[in-house]
């Protein structure tokens, strides 16, 4: 019985040490993530995002208002002269706010939206440019 009791206490001690190490590791990771997190100046920024559609290069215009790294508002203006591309850009423009408003700009990476898989690439390109402009 003594070896079972010692084994049980040893297991509890090991589990406690592992939990403490895991917690310390999580705290270290969280602190490192905070240190690596970018800070952006509050304000309104505009950029043109470039992407390639089957017919060639295209662009989309994006305006974002930031406050404490959070997207407060977003506006997308079609920049294409190609009728099909312009139509998709308009659809994306109408759907994008619900995906990005209220989110940290560093977490934004829009995928297929409103049936368009290419226009979001231009949007993400514009967001990258806006992040460069706004970096504190």
Automatic annotation (TrEMBL):
This protein's record includes keyword Signal: yes
The residue range of the signal peptide is 1-32
Q: Which UniProt keywords apply?
A: Signal
Spell out the protein name for this chain.
Answer: Calcium-binding protein
Instruction: List the lineage, top down.
Output: Bacteria, Bacillati, Actinomycetota, Actinomycetes, Mycobacteriales
